[in-house]
């Protein structure tokens, strides 16, 4: 049986600007597009949230809904047409591809992430790295023991993408802490097998090797404070410190080339915290 040894590559970014493969504006545009499509697909479940939104925002979604789901039967209500697509189907309809977690093509690498449908064009946001966001002075020692899912950002910020053990407990605790009534400030479904945000699988993208070249790279992105509150329920990241008055750090994975259906994603510039 042919085997492929894995060599961890160091994520070296000499200047902050060198970390940007695409612009922050392009990243934001993609996330808004996907999250808005997910919101509309679950519109019948959003009634409690809609009552808390300003009238212009509610009207915007009411206007967009017929465009997203054209009515075949004029007697059907808008609510009856909802929840007919799975999140990965929404991703395909929105960006032209879908991805999923599955057994990696690398021997002994566990799970990986594959393009299951469509084509990922070069420069597209193909995934997100979920997890709890820690500033470099915040306690992460116990979470880091035997944890290969901690991502180090250029400025020392850490993102713990482990979906098990104490890492899972911490994320769920922070998510419950930040919830405002029906308004969720983050998505915790990446901790389960039923993802609401189909992009939130980036922690399972395996590192490149001498035998498998990278086809995606990591790019840091600070979520703007003006991000629509009704769409925060799809953000798979949360700050460990509730009192931090700073933009939420996120990390996306960007395609370095066109990636075809059936291909596994491999990253470069990966840093493991031991």
From TrEMBL:
<dbReference type="InterPro" id="IPR001214">
    <property type="entry name" value="SET_dom"/>
</dbReference>
<dbReference type="InterPro" id="IPR046341">
    <property type="entry name" value="SET_dom_sf"/>
</dbReference>
<protein>
    <submittedName>
        <fullName>SET domain-containing protein 9 isoform X1</fullName>
    </submittedName>
</protein>
<dbReference type="InterPro" id="IPR040415">
    <property type="entry name" value="SETD9"/>
</dbReference>
<feature type="domain" description="SET">
    <location>
        <begin position="97"/>
        <end position="270"/>
    </location>
</feature>
């Amino acid at each position: 049986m042919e085997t492929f040894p894995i060599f961890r590559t160091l994520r070296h970014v000499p200047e902050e600007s060198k970390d940007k493969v695409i612009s922050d504006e392009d990243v934001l545009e993609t996330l808004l597009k996907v999250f808005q499509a997910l919101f509309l697909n679950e519109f019948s479940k959003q009634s409690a949230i809609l009552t808390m939104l300003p009238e212009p925002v509610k009207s915007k979604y009411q206007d967009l809904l017929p465009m997203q789901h054209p009515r075949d039967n004029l007697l059907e209500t808008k609510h009856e047409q909802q929840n007919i697509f799975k999140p990965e189907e929404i991703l395909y309809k929105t960006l032209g591809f879908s991805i999923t977690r599955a057994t990696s093509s690398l021997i002994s690498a566990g799970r990986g992430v594959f393009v299951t449908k469509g084509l990922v064009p070069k420069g597209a946001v193909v995934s997100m790295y979920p997890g709890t966001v820690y500033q470099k002075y915040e306690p992460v020692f116990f979470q880091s023991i035997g944890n290969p899912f901690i991502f180090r950002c250029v400025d020392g910020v850490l993102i713990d993408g482990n979906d098990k053990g104490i890492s899972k407990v911490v994320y769920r605790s922070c998510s419950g802490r930040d919830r405002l009534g029906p308004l969720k400030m983050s998505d915790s479904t990446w901790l389960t097998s039923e993802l609401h945000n189909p992009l939130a699988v980036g922690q399972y993208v395996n590192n490149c090797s001498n035998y498998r070249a990278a086809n995606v790279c990591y790019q840091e992105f600070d979520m703007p404070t003006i991000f629509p509150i009704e769409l925060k329920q799809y953000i798979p990241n949360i700050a460990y410190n509730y009192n931090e008055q700073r933009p939420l750090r996120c990390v996306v994975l960007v395609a370095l080339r066109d990636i075809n259906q059936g291909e596994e994603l491999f990253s470069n510039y990966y840093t493991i915290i031991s």
